[in-house]
């Protein structure tokens, strides 16, 4: 865990979101936190490159046999259930347990949580292991909060993020986690406070693994400021959205946006971040 909380100033009642976002990104670049990602085959490449372009160090380690040695040394853990199998689930649970014992933050991405009973039960069991942050789309958060399997569009959401605000608050209260709901406005709540990160562009939804990648970025931001996971989650979502906005100015479609997204994240400077961060309070 990187201890640099003294470098990051917070105003709990009225956060200065731009400077806070820049402080988080700067801390990631300075400390290069090691982020273990147990994730799906579709997302590994973009997740790793997102972390690298932000300044973090990715480790795509998922072997059950490596977890006792490796996970306690990571600054944070990211668990993504996108291509969930019965063989991988024990490794996810062992890593979550190891991170908890070591006092390291970990983030859960409950991909398509309501698509099947197996997936829903696995995700709810992982939530019971007290992740620091749960980030999903509206449908995933509703499925977790309601413990319900229902009609699914795979990893795509059938609900707007704003449809899941109350479900997110309920899940945050019952689990003790920060809950983030991705959408046109990215919602973040701790069960009491609710903020919305309004950065990003619609075409990011046409690139597979952007949601997975922002979850990894959240893990990196929480790693450098674990005492303020709520703020770190909101700023990570905003920073990723800003990179998408800048990338969109140069892109011709989803494929080129993917490239420019990574380049833009790598090239963000203080003035751009402070000026473009757009986080509003709902509470």
Explain the overall architecture:
Helices cover 46% and strands 13% of the residues. The chain has 283 residues and is α/β, with parallel strands linked by helices. The protein has a 9-stranded mixed β-sheet with strand order 2-1-3-4-5-6-7-8-9, sandwiched between helices. The chain is globular, with a radius of gyration of 17 Å. The relative contact order is 0.16.
Percent of residues in beta strands?
Answer: 5-15%
- In spatial order, strands of the major sheet run 2-1-3-4-5-6-7-8-9
Low-confidence stretches: 1-7, 9-14, 152-158
**Could you say which structural class the secondary elements and strand pairing correspond to?**
alpha/beta
Largest sheet: 9 strands, mixed
Helix content range:
40-55%
Shape: globular
**SSE order, as H and E?**
HEHEHEHEHEHHEEEHHHHE
Structure characteristics:
alpha/beta, nine-stranded mixed beta sheet, disordered N terminus, 13% strand, 283 residues
